[in-house]
Every structure is written in C-alpha cells, then in structure tokens.
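Progress against Task 2.4 (sequence-to-structure conversion) is shown through the following example record, which the project officer requested during the mid-term review.
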Amino acid sequence: METQYRGRRFLSFWRDTRGSTAVEFGLVAIPFIFMTIGIIELALVFAAANMLEGGVAEASRLIRTGELQQAGGDPEETFREALCAHALVLIECDGIVVESIAIEDNTFEGISELVPEYDEDGNLIPSGFELGEVSDVVLVRVAYRYQFMTPLFGDIFSNQPDRAYPMLATAVMRTEPYEFEDE
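Structure tokens generated for the chain above:
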C-alpha cells in the first residue's frame, strides 16, 4: 500500500507543471545571455578591425597623392589625425602604432620580406615613418590592440596576457607623380 502511495505521489509531482516555465527559463537564460554578449563582443571586434582598415586606406591616400609629403609640419602626426578621424568610435587613438616604409628597390616584389617586428608583449616595433618620393612604393602598417570589454570573453578569444586582440592593417601603394611645375 505504501509503495502505491509513493508511486502516485511521484506521478502527481511529475505531471505538475506549475513553475516549469521558471525552471526552463533558469536553465536557458544563462547560456542565452552569454551567447548574446559574445555575439555583440565579436561584432564590435570585427567593426573595430573594419574601421582600422578603412582608416588606413583613407589616411594612406594622403601619402599616395603627395599631400603629406608637400604639407608642412609633422607628417606622422598628420597621418594619425587622418586615421583617427575615420576610426573614431571603437578605436582609441593613443593605442595606435604607425610605421611607413619606403621600399628601397621601388618594386612590389620585396614587400613580403618586410615582416613586422614585435616585442615580447606583442606590440609592434615601428621602424620609422618614411613617406617616399614621387613614384616610390610605400608600405604603411598600423597596429592596434583591441581591449575586450567583458573579461570572460577576453580570456576566451585572446591568448594575450592583457586580454587584447592584436590588429594589423596594411596598405601598399605607389605614390603618384604629385610634383607640379609652377606656371
């Protein structure tokens, strides 16, 4: 008799659905929230990388057209200002490392041999800021370390000790014949 009572009690507990929605929500909510935050964080990383690439393309145009070579003042600072004007939202301009190299043999063949150098923390070691002259081949590199906003995803998506995602944007161009004769 006691066994039947236990069986009915178990069946009535099993059939009772009051509160099942709260339990299901509790089981699904935490993974759903983590996935949503992770998707948003990755979207921000890709948006920042896209902004960096676009900013490098826009700022490199100043070198390609000769505007930077003919302008007065510090060319690296002018390049940074143009880059930061394009990549304003997700990138902190203080963390950008810039280098520009005029290729010696003035061809595109030797560019693959110009491997970027990094220090022990993973930061780009710039080798200067050379603009080149008329019809020179110029390599521009911009490095940035994107800091994850959420510590958990920074540990998952980055193998760096500071939970940063290193980004490198590169532009290679031949400068235009920008020197004009005065009439």
